[in-house]
Every structure is written in C-alpha cells, then in structure tokens.
Amino acid sequence: MELTIDFLLILSVVLFFAAFIHGTIGFGFPMIATPLLALVYDLKTAILFVIIPNLLVNVMSIASEGGFVQSVKRFYPLVILTTIGSAIGTLILVHFSSEFFKLLLAFFILFYLFINNLKLETTWIRANPNSAMIGFGLASGIVGGLTNAMAPVLIIYSLEMKFTKKETIQSGNLCFFFSKSTQLVLFTYFGAFGLVEVQASLIALLFVGVAISLGIKLKKRISQEMFKQVIKGLLFVIAMVLIFQVMF
Asked: What phi, psi does 121 have (nearest 5°)?
C-alpha cells in the first residue's frame, strides 16, 4: 500500500477524533478508529495502522490516572488473560476473515444494553469473580485480536464488577497496551507490519498526542454517572457501525 496524501489525511482525521474521545472517557480509540477506517479499507489494514498510535494513547491514559504500580499489581491477572486471548485472535485474523466475528460482537453489545435497560443484573459475575475474569479476559482478548474492539467486553465486565471510573480506565488501558504490543509482534513476525505502516503511524502520532491531551483535560469534568452513560451510548453506536459494515 502506498502512502498517498488522501490516505494520510483520512488516517489523521480518524485517529484525531478517536484519540479525543478516548482521552475524554478513557476508552474508545481502537474501537472507534478501526470501524471508521474499515469503512474505506479492509479490516486488517485498519487494524495495522491503528496499533502504534494505540500504544501512545494507552500510555498517556494510564499516566493521566496515576497509581500505575498499584493498578498493575491489582489487574495483572486480567492483563495476562487478555494478552493470551489477543494472541489467539490475531493468529485467527492472519489466516481467516473476521467479518462474522464483527457481527457477533455487535449483537453481543446490543444484548448487554437491552439487559441493562431492563435493570437485570448478571449477578453470577460478582458471585464468581475468578471464573468471570478468566472468561471475560480471554473473550475480550480474542475479540480484540480479531476486530480491535476489545473494549465492549471489558466494559461489560467492569460495569458488572462495579469498578470505579479510574479502575475502569486503568484496567482497560493496561489490557490494551499489552495486547496491542503482542499483536504488533505477531503481525511483524508474519510480515504483515512493514515500513509503510510504521511511517504512516509515526506521522499520525502527532495528531493523536494533541487530541488525547485535549480529551484528558475534558475528562476531569465528567461525573461518574455521565461517564457510564457516555460509554453505553458509545457501545450502541459501535454496534450499529459494525452491523452496517457486515450487512452493507
């Protein structure tokens, strides 16, 4: 793939928007940027050009919340599980199409939002924290490896475990950072990540850095309840975009 002005413009605008949203709510960069890029390019290409900027977004988000060491100590089992799942999902993506998995993810998101609106609670998650962590950790990693949309699964787990805003942001970004790092290594090993992807990613980093900094400043003004509502709204939008991509 050649680096044209049009491609760099589209990439920069999409990544700027996604990074701003991520900075504002602590989530959203890959699961916003990837579907938007996939509307113009294939899914694998979209994922490849999001990986390096994603790592910068994760580092800045983690740093903005503080308490890095404590977060690692608490969430490292979840991080390990999502990283393993991401490796599995990436290997599948390298060899097979993931359109069907995108559709499954969309319906999974809508099903959760439907249950949430009915005020039904999946109490088994808090009643069986270890089993839930294993299941959601591996599932989120596999989904992330296949579609770059790990966040919905992690968000469901975080909301049901009653994580605070800070805990949700820290755990999610730690999982993303190590999962995307693993994905980068695997793509490079299989020859899918080359000089073009590196060049485009480095050019986009400037826009991403500025956007997430602006978003982080706005994040401090958002309440816990508003934070949850924004996330749920974002999940709905993502589900609609995923369904649109697969069906049309």
From this structure: -115, 135
Chain segment 114-173, per-residue pLDDT in tens = 766 765 566 788 888 899 999 999 999 998 898 888 888 888 898 888 888 889 889 999
Nearest to 138 by CA among 176, 69, 188, 82: 82
- Are residues 148 and 9 in contact, defined by beta-carbon separation less than 8 angstroms? no
Of the candidates 100, 197, 93, which has an alpha carbon nearest to the alpha carbon of residue 144? 93
Name, in order, each residue with C-beta under 8 angstroms of 211's C-beta and a sequence gap of 6 or more. 15, 16, 17, 18, 19, 20, 23
CA distance 171 to 167: 6
User: Do the beta carbons of residue 198 and residue 5 sit within 8 Å?
Assistant: no
In the chain, domain spans: 5-247
Predicted TM-score (pTM) of the model is 0.84
**Distance in angstroms between the alpha carbons of the first and the last residue of the chain:** 24
Distances (CA, A) of 201 to 15, 55, 114, 174: 10, 11, 37, 21
Q: What is the pLDDT of residue 115?
A: 66
Q: How far apart are CA 212 and CA 22, in angstroms?
A: 7
Name the residue with tokens 């991403």: 208
Q: Which of 171, 159, 193 is nearest to 48 (CA)?
A: 193
Query: Of 16-20, 112-116, 241-245, which gets the smallest average pLDDT?
Result: 112-116
What is the distance between the alpha carbons of residues 67 and 204, in angstroms, rounded to a whole number? 28
Q: Which helix (H) or strand (E) holds 233?
A: helix 224-247
Token pair 């959601």 is at which residue? 136
- Residue 150 · residue 82 · CB < 8 Å: yes
Token digits for 105?
A: 């993810």
